[in-house]
Amino acid sequence: MHDSTAAPERVRTRFEERAQQFDDLYEDERWLVRTLRPGLFRRRQLAVETVQAYPSPSVLDVGCGSGRIGEFVLSEGGAARYVGVDFSEPMVELSRARLERFADRTQLLVDDFLTAPLIGSFDVILALGLFDYLPDADRFSRRMFELCAPGGCVVGSFPSWSWLKGPVRKVRYEWIGNCPIFNYSRRELEELFGTSGFDRVEVTSPGRSGFLVRAYRT
Ligand SMILES: C[S@@+](CC[C@H](N)C(=O)[O-])C[C@H]1O[C@@H](n2cnc3c(N)ncnc32)[C@H](O)[C@@H]1O
Protein backbone atom coordinates (compact mmCIF):
# COMPACT_ATOMS: atom_id res chain seq x y z
CA MET A 1 0.00 0.00 0.00
CA HIS A 2 1.24 3.51 -0.76
CA ASP A 3 2.39 5.36 2.36
CA SER A 4 1.39 9.01 2.18
CA THR A 5 3.51 10.05 5.18
CA ALA A 6 6.00 12.71 4.06
CA ALA A 7 9.52 11.41 3.39
CA PRO A 8 11.25 13.45 6.16
CA GLU A 9 8.79 12.08 8.72
CA ARG A 10 9.54 8.52 7.67
CA VAL A 11 13.28 9.18 7.92
CA ARG A 12 12.87 10.75 11.35
CA THR A 13 10.81 7.78 12.57
CA ARG A 14 13.45 5.36 11.31
CA PHE A 15 16.24 7.10 13.19
CA GLU A 16 14.15 7.53 16.31
CA GLU A 17 13.38 3.82 16.41
CA ARG A 18 16.84 2.62 15.42
CA ALA A 19 19.23 5.06 17.05
CA GLN A 20 20.96 2.44 19.19
CA GLN A 21 21.04 -0.07 16.35
CA PHE A 22 22.77 2.49 14.09
CA ASP A 23 25.20 3.44 16.83
CA ASP A 24 26.16 -0.20 17.33
CA LEU A 25 27.44 -0.39 13.75
CA TYR A 26 30.48 1.58 14.88
CA GLU A 27 31.06 -0.55 17.94
CA ASP A 28 32.65 -3.44 16.18
CA GLU A 29 35.83 -2.40 14.46
CA ARG A 30 37.02 -5.94 13.73
CA TRP A 31 38.37 -6.55 10.26
CA LEU A 32 35.21 -8.36 9.10
CA VAL A 33 32.95 -5.43 10.00
CA ARG A 34 35.41 -2.98 8.47
CA THR A 35 35.43 -5.08 5.32
CA LEU A 36 31.63 -5.18 5.13
CA ARG A 37 31.15 -1.53 5.97
CA PRO A 38 34.28 0.26 4.79
CA GLY A 39 32.32 3.43 3.92
CA LEU A 40 31.52 4.14 7.56
CA PHE A 41 35.18 4.36 8.51
CA ARG A 42 36.38 6.02 5.30
CA ARG A 43 34.01 8.93 5.70
CA ARG A 44 35.03 9.40 9.32
CA GLN A 45 38.67 9.45 8.24
CA LEU A 46 38.00 12.10 5.57
CA ALA A 47 36.08 14.23 8.08
CA VAL A 48 38.95 14.17 10.58
CA GLU A 49 41.62 14.90 7.92
CA THR A 50 39.60 17.81 6.56
CA VAL A 51 39.02 19.36 9.98
CA GLN A 52 42.72 18.94 10.84
CA ALA A 53 43.66 21.09 7.83
CA TYR A 54 42.12 24.21 9.44
CA PRO A 55 43.53 26.12 12.43
CA SER A 56 40.86 26.31 15.20
CA PRO A 57 38.03 25.19 12.95
CA SER A 58 34.33 25.57 13.63
CA VAL A 59 32.43 22.48 12.53
CA LEU A 60 28.76 21.95 11.77
CA ASP A 61 27.66 18.30 11.66
CA VAL A 62 24.36 17.97 9.79
CA GLY A 63 22.57 14.76 10.75
CA CYS A 64 25.15 14.24 13.51
CA GLY A 65 23.52 10.99 14.61
CA SER A 66 24.98 9.46 17.75
CA GLY A 67 28.14 11.61 17.74
CA ARG A 68 30.48 8.95 16.42
CA ILE A 69 32.06 11.35 13.90
CA GLY A 70 31.85 14.29 16.29
CA GLU A 71 33.89 12.43 18.87
CA PHE A 72 36.81 12.01 16.46
CA VAL A 73 36.50 15.50 15.01
CA LEU A 74 36.75 16.95 18.54
CA SER A 75 39.47 14.64 19.88
CA GLU A 76 41.71 14.11 16.84
CA GLY A 77 40.56 16.85 14.47
CA GLY A 78 40.99 19.65 17.00
CA ALA A 79 37.65 21.35 16.34
CA ALA A 80 37.43 24.59 18.32
CA ARG A 81 33.63 24.62 18.06
CA TYR A 82 31.31 21.77 17.15
CA VAL A 83 27.59 22.13 16.45
CA GLY A 84 25.62 18.94 15.79
CA VAL A 85 22.06 19.02 14.50
CA ASP A 86 19.77 16.05 14.09
CA PHE A 87 15.98 15.74 14.09
CA SER A 88 16.03 12.37 15.89
CA GLU A 89 15.96 13.00 19.63
CA PRO A 90 17.30 9.56 20.64
CA MET A 91 20.27 10.11 18.31
CA VAL A 92 21.03 13.47 19.93
CA GLU A 93 20.73 11.89 23.38
CA LEU A 94 23.42 9.37 22.40
CA SER A 95 25.55 12.27 21.08
CA ARG A 96 25.08 14.18 24.30
CA ALA A 97 26.38 11.26 26.37
CA ARG A 98 29.26 10.55 23.99
CA LEU A 99 30.43 14.16 23.70
CA GLU A 100 29.99 15.12 27.36
CA ARG A 101 33.71 15.60 27.92
CA PHE A 102 33.81 18.20 25.12
CA ALA A 103 30.79 20.12 26.46
CA ASP A 104 32.64 23.45 26.54
CA ARG A 105 33.13 23.33 22.74
CA THR A 106 29.93 21.54 21.77
CA GLN A 107 26.34 22.48 21.02
CA LEU A 108 23.69 19.91 20.07
CA LEU A 109 20.32 20.70 18.56
CA VAL A 110 17.28 18.47 18.04
CA ASP A 111 15.91 20.05 14.87
CA ASP A 112 15.40 19.78 11.15
CA PHE A 113 18.48 21.23 9.45
CA LEU A 114 16.38 23.21 6.97
CA THR A 115 14.68 25.21 9.71
CA ALA A 116 17.15 24.99 12.63
CA PRO A 117 18.19 28.38 14.07
CA LEU A 118 21.86 28.13 13.13
CA ILE A 119 23.91 31.25 13.60
CA GLY A 120 27.31 32.21 12.18
CA SER A 121 29.41 30.42 9.62
CA PHE A 122 31.44 27.24 9.73
CA ASP A 123 34.82 26.19 8.33
CA VAL A 124 33.75 22.59 7.84
CA ILE A 125 30.21 21.32 7.34
CA LEU A 126 29.81 17.56 7.63
CA ALA A 127 27.00 15.73 5.86
CA LEU A 128 27.85 12.07 6.35
CA GLY A 129 25.26 9.40 5.74
CA LEU A 130 22.69 12.18 5.33
CA PHE A 131 22.02 12.69 1.62
CA ASP A 132 20.99 9.03 1.31
CA TYR A 133 17.61 10.04 2.75
CA LEU A 134 16.88 13.43 1.16
CA PRO A 135 14.31 13.85 -1.62
CA ASP A 136 15.23 17.56 -1.84
CA ALA A 137 19.03 17.48 -1.77
CA ASP A 138 19.34 20.94 -3.39
CA ARG A 139 17.61 22.68 -0.46
CA PHE A 140 20.20 21.16 1.86
CA SER A 141 23.23 21.99 -0.30
CA ARG A 142 22.03 25.60 -0.67
CA ARG A 143 21.61 26.04 3.08
CA MET A 144 25.05 24.51 3.58
CA PHE A 145 26.51 27.10 1.19
CA GLU A 146 24.86 29.93 3.17
CA LEU A 147 26.38 28.60 6.41
CA CYS A 148 29.84 27.88 4.95
CA ALA A 149 32.60 30.39 5.75
CA PRO A 150 34.73 31.74 2.87
CA GLY A 151 37.56 29.22 2.47
CA GLY A 152 35.43 26.55 4.12
CA CYS A 153 34.03 23.34 2.75
CA VAL A 154 31.36 20.68 2.94
CA VAL A 155 32.36 17.03 3.40
CA GLY A 156 29.63 14.66 2.29
CA SER A 157 29.04 11.00 1.57
CA PHE A 158 26.64 9.78 -1.12
CA PRO A 159 25.46 6.35 -2.21
CA SER A 160 25.53 5.41 -5.88
CA TRP A 161 23.43 2.78 -7.56
CA SER A 162 25.05 -0.63 -7.71
CA TRP A 163 23.47 -3.78 -9.10
CA LEU A 164 25.14 -5.71 -6.31
CA LYS A 165 23.80 -3.77 -3.31
CA GLY A 166 21.14 -1.52 -4.87
CA PRO A 167 18.19 -3.93 -5.05
CA VAL A 168 18.83 -5.25 -1.53
CA ARG A 169 19.03 -1.70 -0.13
CA LYS A 170 15.80 -0.78 -1.95
CA VAL A 171 13.93 -3.71 -0.44
CA ARG A 172 15.43 -3.31 3.04
CA TYR A 173 14.92 0.44 3.37
CA GLU A 174 11.90 1.28 1.22
CA TRP A 175 9.76 -1.84 1.20
CA ILE A 176 10.47 -3.27 4.63
CA GLY A 177 11.73 -0.20 6.48
CA ASN A 178 9.31 2.34 4.94
CA CYS A 179 12.19 4.79 4.54
CA PRO A 180 13.03 6.49 1.20
CA ILE A 181 16.59 6.27 -0.11
CA PHE A 182 18.31 8.09 -2.99
CA ASN A 183 21.37 7.46 -5.16
CA TYR A 184 23.68 9.91 -6.94
CA SER A 185 25.98 10.01 -9.94
CA ARG A 186 29.24 11.96 -10.18
CA ARG A 187 27.65 14.42 -12.60
CA GLU A 188 24.65 15.01 -10.35
CA LEU A 189 26.97 15.77 -7.44
CA GLU A 190 29.08 18.26 -9.41
CA GLU A 191 25.89 19.97 -10.52
CA LEU A 192 24.26 19.88 -7.08
CA PHE A 193 27.15 21.66 -5.35
CA GLY A 194 28.11 23.81 -8.35
CA THR A 195 24.63 25.31 -8.68
CA SER A 196 24.48 25.84 -4.91
CA GLY A 197 27.43 28.23 -5.21
CA PHE A 198 30.48 26.11 -4.34
CA ASP A 199 33.49 26.98 -6.51
CA ARG A 200 35.41 23.72 -6.37
CA VAL A 201 33.88 20.27 -6.08
CA GLU A 202 36.08 17.21 -5.49
CA VAL A 203 34.32 13.89 -6.03
CA THR A 204 36.06 10.60 -5.26
CA SER A 205 34.77 7.07 -5.38
CA PRO A 206 36.92 5.05 -2.99
CA GLY A 207 34.49 2.14 -2.78
CA ARG A 208 32.21 0.68 -5.39
CA SER A 209 28.94 1.83 -3.89
CA GLY A 210 29.37 5.49 -3.18
CA PHE A 211 31.07 8.87 -3.44
CA LEU A 212 32.86 11.15 -1.04
CA VAL A 213 32.63 14.86 -1.84
CA ARG A 214 34.49 17.93 -0.69
CA ALA A 215 32.89 21.13 -1.97
CA TYR A 216 34.80 24.37 -1.31
CA ARG A 217 33.60 27.96 -1.02
CA THR A 218 36.38 30.40 -1.91
C1 LIG B 1 22.77 7.46 8.80
S1 LIG B 1 22.65 8.63 10.07
C2 LIG B 1 24.30 9.29 10.00
C3 LIG B 1 24.76 9.83 11.34
C4 LIG B 1 26.20 10.40 11.36
N1 LIG B 1 26.36 11.49 10.42
C5 LIG B 1 27.20 9.33 11.06
O1 LIG B 1 27.73 9.30 9.93
O2 LIG B 1 27.48 8.52 11.95
C6 LIG B 1 21.70 9.95 9.32
C7 LIG B 1 21.16 10.96 10.34
O3 LIG B 1 20.61 12.09 9.63
C8 LIG B 1 19.50 12.57 10.37
N2 LIG B 1 18.67 13.41 9.49
C9 LIG B 1 18.09 13.05 8.32
N3 LIG B 1 17.41 14.11 7.80
C10 LIG B 1 17.60 15.16 8.65
C11 LIG B 1 17.15 16.51 8.66
N4 LIG B 1 16.36 17.01 7.70
N5 LIG B 1 17.54 17.31 9.68
C12 LIG B 1 18.31 16.82 10.70
N6 LIG B 1 18.75 15.54 10.75
C13 LIG B 1 18.40 14.73 9.74
C14 LIG B 1 18.83 11.28 10.87
O4 LIG B 1 17.99 11.50 11.98
C15 LIG B 1 20.03 10.41 11.21
O5 LIG B 1 20.40 10.50 12.58
Structure description:
The chain is an alpha/beta fold and 218 residues long. 41% of the residues lie in helices and 21% in strands. Strands 3-2-1-4-5-7-6 form a 7-stranded mixed beta sheet, sandwiched between helices. Helix 5 links the parallel strand 1 and strand 2 (81-86). The N and C termini lie far apart (47 Å). The mean pLDDT is 91. S-adenosylmethionine binds next to helix 1, helix 5 and strand 2. S-adenosylmethionine (SAM) binds at residues 8, 11, 15, 22, 63-65, 68-69, 85-88, 91, 112-114, 128-130, 133.
Briefly summarize what is shown.
This protein is an alpha/beta fold and 218 residues long.
Number of strands: 7
Largest sheet: 7 strands, mixed
What is the element string, with H for helices and E for strands? HHHHEHEHEEHEHHEE
Mean pLDDT: 91
Query: Strand fraction band?
Result: 15-25%
Helix content: 40-55%
Taking all Cα atoms into account, the compactness measure Rg is 16 Å
Uncertain spans = none
Sequence-ordered SSE layout with sheet pairings:
Blueprint (H helix, E strand, L loop, with lengths): L6 H11 L1 H6 L6 H6 L1 H15 L5 E5 L5 H8 L5 E6 L2 H10 L7 E5 L11 E6 L9 H11 E12 L6 H11 L9 H11 L3 E5 L5 E7 L2
Parallel strand pairs: 1-2, 1-4, 2-3, 4-5
Antiparallel strand pairs: 5-7, 6-7
Kindly list the characteristics that best describe this protein.
41% helix; 9 helices; 218 residues; seven-stranded mixed β-sheet; alpha/beta; binds S-adenosylmethionine
